[in-house]
Amino acid sequence: MIIQTGKMAWNAVCANKLRTFLTMLGIIIGVAALIILVSIADGAGNSVSSQISQMGSNYLSVQISDNKENPLKLSEFSEIMNADEFLDSAPMGRNSVTGKSGYTSGSVNLYGTSGGYFSIMNMELYTGRLLKQTDLENHSHVIVLSYDTAVEFFGRADADGESLSLDGQTFQVVGVLSQDSVSPSSAMMVRNSNDSSEIVTLEGYIPYSTLSRLSDYVLEITQFYVSSVNQESMDQAERKLEERMMARFDYDEEAFTIQNQSEVMEAMEEVDHTMSLMLGGIAVISLLVGGIGIMNIMLVSVTERTREIGIRKAIGAGQGSIMLQFLLEALMVSMAGCMVGIGISFAVLKVIGQVMGSAMEVSMDGNVTLLSVAFSGVIGIVFGLYPAQKAARKKPIDALRYSG
After folding, report:
1. Of 314, 281, 282, 238, nearest to 60 (Cα)?
2. 37 vs 41: CA distance, rounded Å
3. What pTM was computed for the model?
4. Is the dihedral of CA 290, 291, 297, 300 positive or negative?
5. How does DSSP assign 109-149, residue by residue?
6. What does the pLDDT look like over 327-384, one tens digit per residue?
7. In a 3-state reduction of DSSP, which class is residue 119?
8. DSSP 257
9. What are the φ/ψ torsions at residue 128 (nearest 5 degrees)?
């Protein structure tokens, strides 16, 4: 009985293919919008979170805005950072200089710091060594380059031992970072001289003491980073750091700001979740509109097939059989639209993934796809229920008299 009713429903759906397709269109657009928008939002969120997590999540960033006419000096910094709660600490200063090697030159983001910075930011070496404490003490003219910078100036990544001119002063390259190492301070971009369409970030790291001698803008510590022993001890490290900074700056909490990187990660996850819900909500509205379209067409179909309903009832079809047939028709239209929408989403996300490349990974979320299928089924049943009931309640004699 159910199989026969299903066949009749399928034949009715296929009888007017254009109208069925136009009815499906609302569901197709809604499902495609839901899957694509949520997948893009998740991909963007995961990309940003991945970059942040690559730099580490168990460190504190401190910005000094008011030095109380008593600047924090490098000699004092190590004393303040001497505590069991802190694993590593590193000052940070920045300046833009002109780098030159042979015939290649370009603007370089030059960072003054210490060896602890690379550990805090989870940066790894490709070749050579990192900055040492003796480099800070001796104001050494040594530099650690990013992978792209080494390739840009020397044509290869294993450039340790080479010399690089920075604003006319010679620095020895002692190390090159791995290609995956990311700096949170990277901002300045310059064009690759070999390919004007390619953008390369040029940056290098020198001892903080050396940068303070090279630049008039880096005479005191206004920014530094501190890492905790592990993720669980972040709050304890933050309290200790705040206690010491308050004592250093006359208990003025406005003189400095401390940012907890783990809190940044949590905030990013919250934003990502909220964006996914918002975009998903917008797409769900499209699905509801598609459901209204199904109800509208099913009501028209009930009216057009009044005599058919009357004949079926006259030969013994019950209300349940009539209602089931129209419900199945609505469900078939809704689910067919859902399947087409999923196929379109898969194709669109593949194209977006190819275009974005490694910048952002975009993939179809299985949970969102299942939710789309379930929601489409519910829409088919809910919006098909009223037309099905209307068809089932028609009296056989009135239906047979209907002339259209």
Report:
1. 238
2. 6
3. 0.60
4. negative
5. EEEEE-THHHHHTT--EEEE----HHHHHTT--EEEE-HHH
6. 888 888 889 999 999 999 999 988 888 887 766 777 787 888 898 899 888 988 888 8
7. helix
8. E
9. 85, -145
Which alpha helices (DSSP H) does 305-318 contain, by range?
A: 306-314
Buried b (16+ CB within 10 A) or exposed e, 105-126: ebebbbbbbbbbbbbbbbbeeb
How far is the C-alpha of 53 from the C-alpha of 58, rounded, in Å?
9
Torsion of CA 7, 12, 17, 21, to 10 degrees: -90
At 20, list the tokens.
């069925």
CA distance 314 to 397: 8
Residue 118: enclosing H or E segment and its boundaries?
Answer: helix 116-120
- Contact between 128 and 67 (Cβ < 8 Å): no
Tokens for 285?
């509205």
Give residues with Cβ within 8 angstroms of 19, minimum separation 6: 297
Q: Which residues contact 340 (CB under 8 A, 6 or more apart)?
A: 24, 28
Q: Helix-strand-coil percent breakdown of the chain, rounded to 5?
A: 55, 20, 25
User: Which sign does the torsion angle of CA 162, 165, 166, 171 carry?
Assistant: positive
Instruction: Spell out the domain ranges in the chain.
Output: 2-51+268-401, 66-254
Structure tokens at 153: 């100036």
Pair of tokens at residue 142: 């040594």
As given in the structure block, the two tokens for residue 216 are 């008039």
Exposure of 2 by Cβ count < 10 A (0-12 exposed, 13-18 middle, 19+ buried)?
Answer: exposed
pLDDT at site 300: 82
106, containing H or E segment: strand 104-113
